[in-house]
Amino acid sequence: MPANRFNNFTDYGIGIGLRAPHYDHILKRKPVVDWFEIISENFMIDGGRALRILDQILEQYKVVQHGVSMYFGSAGRPDREHLRRLKDLVKRTKTPWLTDHLCWGSVDGRYTHDLLPMPYTFEAARITAQKVREVRDFLEIPIAVENVSSYAEFHVSEMTEWEFLNEVAERADCGILLDVNNIYVSSRNHNFDPFEYVNAVPPERVAQIHIAGHSKFQKYILDTHDHPVIDPVWKLYARSIERAGHTATLLEWDDSIPSFDEVHDEALKANRFLASASLAAAV
Amino acid sequence: MSLLNLQRRMARAVMMPLTPSERMRSVAPDGRSMHAAAARFIKPNDRLTSFERLEIYNRQYWFRILSSLAEDFPGLRAVLGGRRFDALAKAYLTDCPSRSFTLRNLGSRLERWIEKHPSWAGSRQKLALDMVRLEWADVEAFDGKAEPSLRPEDLASGKPDMRLKLQPYVRLLPLRYPVDNLLLEVRHGGDSDFSSNAFNERHKRKRVLAVARLKPAEIFLAVHRMESSVYFRRLEREEFAILSALRDGKPLDRAVESGFRKSSTAPAERPSKVQEWFRNWATLGWFCRPEGRSAKA
Fold first, then answer.
1. At the topology level of CATH, where does A5-282 sit?
2. In chain A, positions 28-67, which contact chain B (CB-CB < 8 Å)?
C-alpha cells in the first residue's frame, strides 16, 4: 500500500521532521531528503522568519503537515480560527495529506497543550470520527489520525486502544498514521503485546508511519523523542512494513536534537526494511 | 461518565497547581482527596496507582507551560529574580490558562494580569510591567503580518489629508524605564557559547546589578522587524506621537500637528525633522501600501 487514498496516492519515502536547529544546514547544504514533516502550529502565523524559511523549503522539498492541537477527541467543536489558519497553511504547503493525533487536549475553551489519552468508548469514537469528517470536509484533503503514547487508562473504556483506533478510522473513513514508537511505549505502560496492536491495524488505511526514541523511567516509559530508535521499535516497524508495504516513514526527534546528519542517518536505517518490502512486492 | 464529563474532570486535575516540590497535590482546592478522585476514573496498574498515573500528566502540563512562559519572558525573570518569577508565572497560569491552540499566545494576558495583581511583581512593579510590554511586543513583532510596503508612487497624490497605515508588525511603546537595553543585556548573556561556571556567575551578577541600577527614564520605542529579526528603535517624543496618530488612523496633516502639540522644538526646525523621520520610516518599510493598490509583494 505505498500509495493509497489516505496519503493522496503519493509514494513518499523516508522523511524527517523540519526543526529550527537544522534550518541553516538545510538551506545552505541542500541535503537530499525525500520529504519533511512540519508541525503545522509552528507555521500558523501571520508572517516572519518561520514562514520565510518554510517558503524556501517548499521551493526545494516535499512537505507534509502534522498537527499537535486539533484534538479530534475533545468533546467540544473545532476552533474556527484554528481551522481557518490551518486551511491557509494547507494552501501554502500543498500538503498531500494531513495528520494529527487521536487524542484530546482542550475542554470548555481551555487548552492543556498535551496529547491526552482517550477513553475507549463508542461515544468517544462517534464524537471523534464526526470531528475528523468535519475537519476533512473543511480542509478538503485526506486526514490520517495518529495513535498516541499514553500513561493512563480509564475505567469507562469499552475496548482496546487498537479497537478504538479502528472504530474511529472506520466511522470517519480516514487514514492512520501508525506511530510504532507510541505503540511500544503504551504497550510497556499498559502491559499489552505491541504486535497484537500492529497486527490489528487495517494495513490498507495506513497512510504514514512514525518512528522515534523515548526515555525509560523506573515505573513507566515517556515518549520524549530525544533518543535513537531502539531495536524493539524497529521490529514493530518491520512488521508494519511487512503488512502495509512500502509506506511513507518519518523519524521524529524533538528534544536534545543532534546534527542534521545524525537525525537523517537514523531515519535512513528504515531503508533496510523498506527495501525488503519492495522486494517482496516485486516477487 | 460522558466524554465531556471525563474530560472536564481530568482537565481540572491536570491543570491543578503542583506542590512546592513539584508533585501532584493530594488534596484538591475544594478539599477532595485527589487519590480518591483519580481512582474514580483512572485505572491503576501493577506499578503505578491511579494518582501516580494522573500525576504524570499534571507534572507534564506545568513543566511545559512554565518553560514556555519563561522562554518568552527572560527579561521579566531578570527583573523579578527566578523565585519571584516562578511564583508569578504559576499564579498567572492558574488564573489565565491557555485559551489558544498555540503556546505562542500564552503570555498575551500577562500585562493586564499584573496590572490587576501588582503584588506578584514585588517592589518593582512599573519596571516589571514595562518589561512585559516590551517582551510581548517582541513576540508580536516577530511573527506579525507584513503588508506590501509603500512605494514612492503611492504618495503621488501628495494630499495633506492622506492616511498612512503602519505595518501590523510595528509596535509602539511608551515606557517609563529604558528596558530595551536591559533586555538586550539579558539576551546577549544567554547567547554566549562560552559556558564556564565563572562566566555564568559573572554574567548573572552583572545582570542583577543592571536591574538594581536601572533608574526610571521615559523612552519611546518602536519594536519592529527587518530581515526576519526584531529590533528596538528609540524614537523622539514627537516622532512617537506622529506615528501613534497615524497608526490610529488620523490623516497625515493632523497626525503631524498633534505630534508637535506640546513640543518644545522650534517651529522652524520642525519641517526638516519631519522629513528626516519620514525618510527613516520609509527606509525601514514601516508603512503599508494603501488598500486597492496591491502589487506583487
1. TIM Barrel (3.20.20)
2. 41, 44-52
Identify which of A82, A153, A219 has the shortest CB distance to residue B47: A219
pLDDT at B190 over 60: no
Contact B42 A50 (CB under 8 A): no
For residue B64, list chain A residues with Cβ-Cβ distance below 8 A: 113-114
Owning domain of residue B97: 73-143+179-213
In a domain, B54, yes or no: yes
CB contact under 8 A, B3 and A75: yes
Write the residue in B56, B97, B143 that is nearest to A46 by C-beta. B143
Tell me: do B193 and B257 sit in the same domain: no
- Both B187 and B167 in a single domain? no
Domain match, B258 and B121 both: no
* Model ipTM value: 0.95
Q: What is the pLDDT of residues B23-60, one digit of tens each?
A: 999 999 889 999 999 999 999 999 999 999 999 999 99
Q: What total number of domains does chain B contain?
A: 3
Query: Is the same domain home to B138 and B26?
Result: no
Domain stop point among B33, B68, B103? B68
User: Of B17, B36, B68, which closes a domain?
Assistant: B68
Q: What is the mean pLDDT of chain A?
A: 95
Q: Is B218 a domain residue?
A: no
Using CA coordinates, name the residue in chain A closest to B103.
A113
Residue A114 and residue B102: Cβ atoms within 8 Å? Answer: no
Give the DSSP H/E element, type plus range, for residue A39. strand A35-39
- Grid cell for residue B103: 503556546
Same domain, B154 and B292: yes
Say yes or no: A220 contacts chain B, CB-CB below 8 A: yes
Q: Would you say residue B87 lies in a domain? A: yes
Q: Under an 8 A CB cutoff, do B144 and A48 touch?
A: yes
